[in-house]
Amino acid sequence: MKILFPFFAVIVLVLLAMIGVGGANLQSLFGVVVPYAAVLIFIIGIIYRVIKWAKSPVPFSIVTTCGQQKTLPWIKQNKLENPSTTLHVIGRMALEVLFFRSLFRNIKGELKDSSRFIYGSDKWLWLAGIAFHYSFLIVLLRHIRLFAEPTPSFLHLLETFDGFLQIGIPRLFMTGIILLAAVTFLFLRRVYIPQVRYISLQADYFPLFLIIGIATTGILMRYFLKTDVVAVKELTMGLVSFNPVIPKGIGVIFYIHLFLVSTLFAYFPFSKLVHMGGVFLSPTRNLTGNSREYRRINPWNYPVKVHTYEEYEEEFREKMKMAEIPVEKE
Amino acid sequence: MAKFTAKPADLLKINFKTPKTDWMDTPVEIREHMYCHPAKAKDLETVGFPNIHEWKPTDENWNLPENWKEIVLSGIKERLQKYRSFHVFMDICVRCGACADKCHFYLGTGDPKNMPVLRAELLRSVYRKYFTTGGKIFGKTAGARELTEDVLKELWYYYYQCTECRRCSVFCPYGIDQAEITMMGRELTNLLGLQLGWIAGPVANCYMKGNHLGLEPHTIKSNIEFMLDDIETITGIRINPTFNRKGAEILFVTPSGDLFGVPGVYTAMGYLMLFHELGLDYTWSTYASEGGNFGFFTSNEMAKRLNYKIYAEAKRLGVKWILGGECGHMWRVLHQYMDTWNGPADFLEVPKSPITGTVFENAKSLKMIHVIEFAADLIKHGKLKLDPSRNDHLRVTFHDSCNVARGMGMFEEPRYVIKNVCNHFYEMPENTIREKTFCCGSGTGLNASENMELRMRGGLPRANAVKYVRDHYGVNMLANICAIDRATLQASMDYWVPGTAVAGIHELLANALVMKGEKERTTDLRGEPLPQKSTEKEGAE
Ligand code: SF4
Ligand code: SF4
User: Where is this region: Disordered (chain B) (predicted)?
Assistant: First the structure.
């Protein structure tokens, strides 16, 4: 159920676009209204989420220290795992965001011969995560070509790089394949590892199916069911210049692709996908670990009821005197 | 409650298979030996905790206050607004499972609800239901569920099966820290009066008497005098520490666990001997007689109330700075919270070692340093005369205490000290030490006796790594810098790795410390004979 429901949800989305465009000729709905709405939801949603998080203060310095602290001068500090300056923090965050540092550390704990635990390195998830995110990024960047005239020069470089295998015409871009492979791996991992299957929610499968759908339609469109790229560019340029047009001759497959992408955009801010923004706000990673050196201020700090020394001595004065412990009042 | 009799072999039959039913449809089964007894009403009254009532974990009816649901929900709301960590961690988990097999409680029980991600989901599902649009509309399909009494019981049960050790947060790609979530979950149970006896007792003691064990001023003094007698027997030196002395240069604060019971007292004897040898101008306080903070396991506010006395006492006595003993959660609290809660300590001076002249710039605001930093600095400057061969009967490994490791990042200092006072030091396997260290399994107030199965299961991964070095290198001593470790690891060693003893580092240091005017020592601090010194070099034909 947990897998089937999200799967069918994506199928329904495909059918919606198919019927909507192929049957009912709602090109302008699927080609203009929906994309605009999705982008709007995406932008407003993300801003809303980030503002909401940012509104909650970080009262304490709760950094997770994964390396030696700054201490005596002859002890080497691990600046990236236990940062004490903003620069160190930037370094730590860069490692985290660009290279998934924490995930790279992953190990697998297993009970062998039901008596001893062994912990082996386990980098598959890291590898799939990196492959997925970077290929997604490059694929996304490649699409800039559809929104810019003339095509920015860095894109040529990127495309040469991406398509260096030079297979077929049009050129085969590796990232598309890697993206599909990585996302499929992530899906299979979720299904095959019992623990991961157990913790998975529908909300974990849905974006996977959605992205599989997007990648598949994209690849289909590029290599198999050819669409009129000139017409597509006309449409996308119209969208970015706020002068929407619906050119003729664009195949249904394009609208399906676009609709799935729009869904992803609109779904983004309300789902776990917001980890993209949240990772930057995670207090265990983005703080310095020098809380003994610099005082952190808690904005909602308030006075609390305490048991004072005077009250303490009041209770124990006689016993303290007997034990020859100094007291304030005789 | 029947006595806990399960043998290690029974506990090792861990079933890592996931249940057939979805976790939301798998009801919680509150099992004997896996939980601690409820708090006594009088302890909760002492500190004014709300909704005190009679209840038993295994009872159907927990006698919750009528508006318990509102209390919990408004409690969640308040905390979302106060802690970004909590808010962000409720939203950004992708359930990748990287944290799943990192938790010692999961590894030791095989219970999927002990995977950090699922432990978090227990509360997240409630959060989604009441605080997110998706959860409100789509309910279960969006991973949301109604807050019912069963859900509350489940939260209670599993949030007291987490020692807030933060190991999971090391591996999470977003640094999601289950300890932060557990702390919030425990605050919520606290609002309903669902507190543990083993936590509430020490809290009440600490509030009224200054320390968790409830030692009264004269008892503190007489306990220490017992140690002084033993020190005199062993070294021939009579030490005369002071108590509550105004005008001392340094206030020394350590967990009260060091003042009571074996092996904590040996660590305390170590401090006494070191400070005497240095001629340190310091004093103990009977009022600020606790560095540990069990309040931290109930609520942020309570923790702050308990921690208050350290600065207050430093001010009253007019000391220059504060020295702290070997303790785990104490140092997490001191390092990451104390200055924020109870500072600024502008009436104190930046800690400066009177022996070496080292100024501890890294503590220039808190004005408090760790006794291991202090000792490492002494050794580095050659200020101590050490004879490590006196520890030659020990083959030592070091357990990084979770909080000192992941809440402070103190890895090198303790190792430096050990290597200077012991000749035989062996590290446990790499993935079980330093920031990846395993919890003792009994932290955060779970060090009771009625939950022995939980403790032994949770302590298994740590014990297993110790067993490795015992089997490979003949290790027989597990050194650490945490009072809870000293109090709990011995039980876990006896169970899983018999023949391994537990000690604080200052015990080992004091064994090796050659004191001015000492008589020839024949025993170590435990009264066991010192190893024979081999005068001839082996192999000299
Ligand atoms: S590692 Fe982090 S993101 Fe992954 S399941 Fe655990 S808490 Fe969630
Ligand atoms: S903080 Fe420690 S005990 Fe708690 S879930 Fe994480 S690893 Fe387990």
Answer: 520-541
